[in-house]
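Model it.
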Amino acid sequence: MNKITDAARQQILALAAAGHSDSSIHRITGISRVTIARYRRGYTPPPPHTTADNTQCRNGHSYPDNLRTDSNGWHYCTQCRRAKAKRWRDRNPMPAQPDTVAILRAVHGDPPQRLTPRERTEAVRQLTDGGLSVTLIAARLRCHPKTVKRARRRLKAAA
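Modeled.
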């Protein structure tokens, strides 16, 4: 939900008391109708997370050291977010070796539905060594030419 200032909230309540509809308040203030309806019903925003009562997240990490706010205004604990990302990486590991069959199929013009970045880079290396242009490689791998250029840059950096 959008955060609004106290002055805007007072304006919403004053216009509502004057008998304006949510649509007319929206036209006057530019605030969304959903937000207007919430404030009209008596919505008050929740208190900030760092109060005397709440000095840590639900997993026990201390505030305000780990408290961050993302671009949407949501608060999160950095340690909890790191742990969540690690759990995801543990559940979805990258394959140790690229699939050679998938690479061979891609080189011969019959790529599988999806190649991993490592497999695509290897296929680009083999096709570049074969003398194909960027557009031909992209057509064969069924990807964008910029993807092929990026893979070539990655290969040059690794060499």
